[in-house]
Design goal:
This protein is α+β, with helices and mostly antiparallel strands. It has two domains: about 325 residues, Thiolase/Chalcone synthase (Peroxisomal Thiolase, Chain A, domain 1); about 70 residues, OB fold (Dihydrolipoamide Acetyltransferase, E2P) (Beta Barrel), CATH 2.40.50. About 30% of the residues lie in helices and about 25% in strands. The protein has a ten-stranded mixed sheet with strand order 5-3-2-4-8-1-9-12-11-10, with helices on both faces. Helix 11 packs across helix 12. The longest helix has 20 residues. It is globular, with a radius of gyration of 23 Å.
């Protein structure tokens, strides 16, 4: 046995996109077929005719319908997606995994299975996922009646939906869907940098315009159009306000039909299976860090999880940020790549931050986006063989971060990297008391949520000497709604809060 035979490697990748226009129902992409298509391409990409029979572990990224507390299933239930996908393949893995919820899961699964491969727990693994949210929406719009139901069963290690990403207190007082929760963090970041809403939109839009240019040249992108910074920064019918300061095209677009998969093994097994060395891309340093609930984070304009995960992965690789040539920083909202760029010492308007084009333009296929990022990184590093690439995958509300650093160059040695020390730093932070009573507090973050006809609701996150309070703003109430007149500079202002019927409400600006 050679010294490096147990080094884990990615040896095959595959990506699929379908631009179905919603017209012919018979051409609608099927969720199971989409995932199989990505798997077939990844297996074919290895160049080995024997690898399918050698796959002994198959991991699947939890789909969007299976991630919701109340699943959206207009075309039938797929009771056991992993086994339903495998049923029409020749694969017979002895271990089958269905991941937890979260956009961190593709990279987290690579990190986990790399350890299993290195230890000999498995020999060849395939990781796959895909979404047809675009087809679901198009079919419903056109009145098609599709049948995606499947009752295939079999053993699966089902990781479930995981712990709730928002608490009852947070939900009751205004937090909710990703745009309205991320938007408040965007406002905190904007305030820390002293930017007006217009200045923030200009910065975010210049960054995302560069992302869209990458997507426009990517054959697997769902929305391959280069969009100007001016268009992205300007509210319009095509780029309407969602949750201040976010406009539509600052947000991940989930109406996609995309799948991606990758095959992993070890150097020794790859040689046995006849997989060419030029196919092999190595995982170097990596990390998996979870943050606390949004209301328990000391500074809403920063992310300790992103900072700790990136620092750990670089340290474990023996690299500096300047050693990384290629990056894909998760981009569901502008704040994630902006925060990561800060940690890495990058200029978001000059440095390369994506190899796909990002979630608003390449597409946001549920939890599986970063599988595309990893596949694209593998293809990039096969060509640029002396370079290093970094993938940052993000789940929840900047709640779960997973990082992998890759290269065609093999590490001298490899061992799983423990994230315990970084996780302990999160756990050791003092608990923040949450307030449910009349009070005054200084605003840290906020957002105004828009509907078709203007603002529909709003909320603030604020602090005082007793802790933190989250409170709704009644946009229809003259007194509380008047606070929105200060929304450009609301961070740092004191507001009065009243507690009634179990909910906190902003009653107006506090008197000086």
């Amino acid at each position: 046995m050679h010294e490096k035979d147990n080094l884990p490697v990615i040896v095959g990748v595959g990506q699929v996109v379908d631009h179905w226009d919603g017209q012919d129902a018979e051409k609608a992409p099927h969720p199971l077929a989409m995932i199989r298509a990505g798997m077939d391409l990844a297996i074919e990409d290895t160049g080995s005719s024997n690898i399918g029979a050698a796959i002994d572990c198959a991991a699947f990224i939890r789909t969007f319908p299976d991630s919701l507390r109340e699943p959206v299933i207009p075309f039938g239930t797929i009771g056991n997606l992993p086994q339903a996908v495998l049923a029409k393949t020749d694969l017979a893995p002895r271990r089958v995994i269905y991941s937890a919820v979260g956009g961190d899961q593709p990279q987290a699964m690579v990190n986990e299975l790399a350890a299993s491969l290195a230890s000999g727990e498995c020999e060849v693994a395939i990781i796959a996922g895909g979404e047809v949210i675009g087809a679901m929406k198009a079919a419903m719009k056109h009145g098609h009646r599709l049948d995606w139901s499947d009752d295939t069963d079999g053993p699966v290690e089902d990781r479930g939906k995981g712990e709730p990403l928002l608490s009852r207190y947070e939900l009751t007082n205004g937090l909710g869907m990703p745009p309205q929760t991320y938007a408040a963090q965007e406002q905190a970041w904007r305030a820390r940098h002293g930017l007006s809403t217009a200045e923030w939109r200009e910065l975010a839009s210049k960054m995302f315009s560069r992302f869209s240019q990458v997507a426009a040249a990517n054959e697997y992108a769902q929305f391959p159009s280069a969009l100007s910074a001016e268009f992205l920064a300007t509210p319009s019918r095509e780029n309407y306000p969602m949750c201040d300061p976010l406009l539509k095209w600052h947000v991940a677009q989930d109406a996609v039909n995309q799948s991606a998969a990758l095959v992993m093994t070890t150097v020794g097994k790859a040689r046995e299976l006849g997989i060419p060395e030029e196919k092999q891309i190595f995982l170097h340093g990596h990390a998996d860090i979870k943050d606390a609930l949004v209301s328990q984070r000391p500074d809403l304009s920063r992310s300790a999880a992103i900072e700790l995960a990136l620092e750990q992965a670089l340290t474990a690789s023996g690299l500096e940020s300047s050693d990384i040539a290629h990056r894909d920083l998760y981009s569901c909202f502008p704040i994630v790549p902006m925060l990561a760029a800060e940690v890495l010492g990058l200029d978001p308007l000059e440095d390369q931050l994506t190899v796909t084009g990002g979630l608003p333009f390449f597409g946001g296929p549920g939890n599986n986006y970063s599988m595309h990022a990893i596949a694209s990184m593998v293809e990039t590093l096969r060509k640029d063989r002396d370079a290093y690439g970094l993938v940052l995958a993000n789940g929840g509300f900047i709640s779960k971060e997973s990082v992998g650093i890759y290269s065609a160059a093999a590490p001298t040695t490899w061992a799983p990297v423990s994230s315990e020390a970084g996780q302990a730093k999160i756990a050791d932070r003092p608990e923040i008391a949450l307030i449910n009573e009349d009070c005054e507090a200084e605003v840290e973050a906020y957002t105004v949520i828009h509907g078709r006809d203007g603002p529909t609701s709003a909320y603030v996150i604020a602090r005082n000497e007793n802790g933190r309070v989250i409170a709704r703003i009644d946009t229809q109430d003259a007194n509380s709604g008047s606070v929105l007149a200060e929304s450009e500079d609301l961070v740092g202002k004191k507001v009065s809060i009243v507690h009634r019927d179990g909910v906190n409400f902003v009653s107006g600006l506090a008197r000086a």
